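[audit] Reproducing an earlier prediction to check determinism. Same input, same settings, fresh worker. If the tokens differ from the archived copy the diff job will pick it up downstream; this log only records the rerun itself.
[audit] input (67 residues):
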Amino acid sequence: MIKTTIIFIVLVIINRILTSRKYNLEIKLMILRAFSFKYLLIIKYMQRDKKVPMNESGESGQLKNVS
């Protein structure tokens, strides 16, 4: 519960920065790049905590792609 609250607060702050007009494009791109990398790390840690089995493609075993 605490993890999801912290992630939500970080998302709100990043959303405020990205939608405001006073920050220039380079800062927004840096934030997006850093956040996308950290988001992947957060997903990996959450899957490790929940003991979700990962398959070869790196997706969790619970979500199956329907084609």
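[audit] rerun output stored. Observation attached for the diff report: DSSP finds two helices and no strands in the chain.
[audit] end
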